[in-house]
Amino acid sequence: MPLKPKRIHTPLRIAVLLLLLLPLKVFSANEKIAYLAHSKNFWQVWTMQADGTDPQQITHTPFDKSHISWYPDGTHLLVNGSQGQIRKVNVQTKQETILELPIKGTVDAVVSPDGLSIAFSLSVAGSIDNNHIWLVKEDGSGLKKLTAMKGLQHEPVWSRDGKAVYFLSGEGDQSHDVWRVERASKRIEKLTAGKLYHFDMAFANDNAMAFSNNQTGNYEIWIKQSDGSNRQLTQHESIDARPSWSPDGKAIVFESSRSGVMNIWMKPISNSEAVQLTHEKVGARFPVWSAGGPEE
């Protein structure tokens, strides 16, 4: 009787088997991540599936794009441009529509959870150190100044219910802390206090806040949990910043210089390792996870 060949468990085979046994996060087919990547000397908007596949360039107009946010339908993005315009971009048709607002010089514009209002930072004094947080409707109506504090107020982020706006405030090289302003009453509350920078806020459905902070001497991703405690999510000698939550609140996508230049990475909020999603040579930045949308 011929002998059966002996199965040899090489290190590579064992590693593959272990990977197959690891719990895998399953993403919805209509979950996308928008981000910025270089194309023909400009930062342009791209999208990819939540697992990093199917990268698609969305914008092509010849100027740098910045700060992006998803509309709730999952098919449009609000995009800030280096020339001062705000555009609504259809990710399916790639059509860019300029929003005609009654005021110029807006920065950090983000669309509200219901898709009807836009929060942004603006200085009417002509100095970037005196920016305030404003609201306006997409059609240009309802212009409203939310803050009038001393110093710079910037990086607005909507609460999930749209009733409040979180923002950063500080003066020059001083600490920039997290504040919250109620949309209706304009009541302002300071949420953090210290000598360190708190940047890049993002909120999960349970109001857990992810942010980047340099309290360890390097920018890492932290989570301020619903009980008020802070938990360090990443620990790496490179810069980790710009977190954005998955729709189910179980993972975070962020930008990191771990590959030598900024690229997009994803990490479950469990203790799993971070996974690199983009491999751009010039870099990829500012990932924003959609809340889902219509099936394509």
Automatic annotation (TrEMBL):
Cross-referenced InterPro entries: 6-blade_b-propeller_TolB-like, WD40
Lineage: superkingdom: Bacteria
Any matching Pfam family: PD40
Organism: Thiogranum longum
The protein's name: WD40 repeat protein
Family, similarity comment: Belongs to the TolB family.
